[in-house]
């Protein structure tokens, strides 16, 4: 296994673990501060105001559904952004839905399908980030788009969790989730460094041995 592949597997494991270890709906409901509303979430296209805690959430951006689930909220509609099938989420988030969400196209969503779900908020924090898409979705419901300065699927996990948790009324839970992710990334980085240090001596010693074998082979053939 290459070092690069090892890194990506560790990163994936961290994200999957975080997304699969969110609070329950009861825990989230108890920590949601309804008095915090109305709340304004700053996005690439300006502030988006939510007058009340959303109860019907449509998650279209890459990872928005998993983020909502990690925060204890079950979207009524979601994009199957990695073509998982079923509930549109990976195995780490299986079983977190009480009712399967309506699956909506990712790159080219059906706006009619979104409207039919009667959402009171649309999460689109990691998407193409174009104005036409935002305006069309905003005509259906308040849409939390990419953060300021982001573009075309470049939203960081910190910004994604911050935006989604603010919209769902659980900013403190979002901050805890980010802190947990950062701790796991730090632990993974330390594990990678340790693995590289353990591997290096054998890799370095293998090179001279290979060179000696090559010289012997050349001598025998001459």
Automatic annotation (TrEMBL):
Renumbered residue ranges of the record's region Disordered: 193-222
Keyword Signal: yes
InterPro entries found in the cross-reference section: ABC_transptr_periplasmic_BD, Bact_iron-sidero_bind
Signal sequence region: 1-20
Domain Fe/B12 periplasmic-binding: 56-222
Family statement drawn from the similarity comment of this UniProt entry: Belongs to the bacterial solute-binding protein 8 family.
Protein name listed in UniProt: Fe/B12 periplasmic-binding domain-containing protein
Organismal lineage: Bacteria, Bacillati, Actinomycetota, Actinomycetes, Mycobacteriales
């Amino acid at each position: 296994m290459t070092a690069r592949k090892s890194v990506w597997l560790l990163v994936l494991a961290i994200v999957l673990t975080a997304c699969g270890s969110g609070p329950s709906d009861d825990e989230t409901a108890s920590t949601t501060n309804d008095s915090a509303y109305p709340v304004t979430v700053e996005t690439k296209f300006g502030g988006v105001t939510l007058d009340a805690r959303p109860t019907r959430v449509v998650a279209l951006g890459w990872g928005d559904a998993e983020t909502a689930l990690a925060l204890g909220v079950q979207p009524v509609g979601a994009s199957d952004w990695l073509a998982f099938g079923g509930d549109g989420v990976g195995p780490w988030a299986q079983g977190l839905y009480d009712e399967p969400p309506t699956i909506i196209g990712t790159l080219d969503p059906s706006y009619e399908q979104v409207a039919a779900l009667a959402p009171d908020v649309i999460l689109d924090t990691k998407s193409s980030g174009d104005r036409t898409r935002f305006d069309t979705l905003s005509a259906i419901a308040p849409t939390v788009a990419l953060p300021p300065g982001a573009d075309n699927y470049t939203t960081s996990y910190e910004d994604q969790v911050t935006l989604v948790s603010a919209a769902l009324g659980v900013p403190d839970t979002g901050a805890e989730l980010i802190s947990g992710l950062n701790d796991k990334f730090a632990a993974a980085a330390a594990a990678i460094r340790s693995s590289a240090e353990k591997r290096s001596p054998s890799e370095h010693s293998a090179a001279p041995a290979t060179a000696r074998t090559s010289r012997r082979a050349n001598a025998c053939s001459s």
